[in-house]
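Example record

The entry below shows one chain as it appears in the dataset: sequence first, then structure tokens.
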Amino acid sequence: MWRLIIRRLLAYNNEKPDQIKLEINQKATGLEDLFVIDDIEFSLYDDLNGFAFNPRNQKCCCISYPQYELLKQCDRMLTVDLHIKKIIEQKAHAGLLRTEVEEILVSLKLKGMVLTAADIVAKFELDDNTTRLDPEDMQSWKQQGWTLAVGSADRPELLARMLKTAEPFIRELEVRPRFVMVDDSRVSKNQGLNKQAAEEFSRNCELEFEYWDRDSRSVFSNDLIKKLPDCKNSIQYLLSPQAHSSATNTIGQVRNLILLRALRKPLLMLDDDCLINPVSETDYHQNGVKFAYSGRNAGISASIDELFLGLQDCPINPFREHLEVLETSVQDQFNYNKDELLQTGYWQGILKDDLHSISANDFVGMSINAIAGALNARPMSWVFKLENHQQQQAIELIDKSQADTQLEQAAWVGSSYDELGKSIGLIGTTICGIACLPLIPPLIPVGRNEDIALGETIKFIYPQSRVYMFAWGLPHLPEPKRYWNPLEAQTEPAYDANPMCMNLIEMLGHSCAYVDPGERLSYLAASLRNTIGGSAYEFIRETYFYHHSHELCAYDASSKTATASVQYQRGCEQMQSYHMSKLDDAEASINTLLPEFESVLASFSQALEDWPEIWHLCSNKEWQA
């Protein structure tokens, strides 16, 4: 049926066959060759066929409804070849032929039903009215200085190692930072070692230095409560170490204090389990901004040593790279990289919705870089979602091992070029940069994924904020070594509200009409509070079923890979069984999650409501003194 429809559809083409063949046979050479289907208006004039109208360029043509359904698959900026691959994979049941799909896409491209990368470039060239946040709020690090901060807990060897590698990069900067060390250690010996390493680093680099342990943080939060008694519960929840169990991961609470002690200056936050020695998988491309969230790749190596054989030192200062992009506008980045944009790869993969939302007035609110080393992800779902050639590499490694052999988990997460996108991405960031924004939201104090949650919240209250991700990474070498066994039974992680809150915040972002960051933050607080009750249950249920069903389908497809080994298939089957058991036990699990999730929503929504008052007090110069 599909083939008959497609052949009939070709009868409506106005182009000459030679014109279509010429377009098909040419190689992708420029921005015109990258396209996404435009927001066309479609109306049927009989049971099968209809008119397509493109309001942007006022062009129209006749297409069939099945063709219109095909076009919905073209939701990313890709070349014809990649569009065809995606359509054929997603419509495998229809038995589509490549030649037929290609003729349809090329025909519609010639008829003006697509949005090309060249159209986006033209949009930027016409937009000369770049607006920024208030210059008094957004000043560069060279004008007003900046803050470098690190949070650590009971890992003094890692902290000392990381700071030692950072020293030469700090010493060569023309503007030195204030250094803030927030120590969440529970063991007094580790507190002493951390403070000693931080003091030595500050002394060697001639830095102004602040050290905060759990006792001094308690004093700070108590002083805040005396000034703001109505915000007592929120201050304790966000900042006081005594508000949470001593066995709880409170890195979010640590970073809340860091945000306040940045004193409204550009901020770079460091992880303690990395080395400040940038490396790159390919030659470093300084002018390679793609304005897209794409091009990610991951790999698996038999060991960390093997991984680093394929990497090379990247001759940059990582601190300067982060600081230079923070607060810059998309228009500035576009103008800087204009000549480079003539290559097709730079826009590839960006979603249609993101294309429409990109504005020359957007600015870089956060900067991040990838990690090179251990990809801290359990269970092993990421392995089964690799690109084909990388998946084959994983299959070969697993095939060589025995069922009881542990492979050292190693991966590279990054891209070949710098990227400017909307999402912070599901990665472990070793440096996170935050611009000098008028109001920076707090983090959920407990749980993991806190840096990603912060990115989502910043994106919510500043819709024009973009995330700049660098192509280079920092070696991530945790101790003790983390091992990964592809066939090992995976343990259920502790409950973490961050991922669910991120999903909820992203959903709420589409319905908020306020412009002012403070008003958007209040709207977010009220919306989270209103979720408590029936809608919280529905949200958890929908999220839960979507996640486990999606994973189940992914493993099922991966287990049928033609080259999959017996062990690889066995690993897939184990993960399928895991997600099937979660679906079988869904209602009980959801009812267990619900009270915990609602408790987080109640505390965090109130904290968001109180945060502007806390933020502005801590930014007050008299209070700082």
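Notes for this example: The radius of gyration is 26 Å. The longest helix spans residues 586-619.
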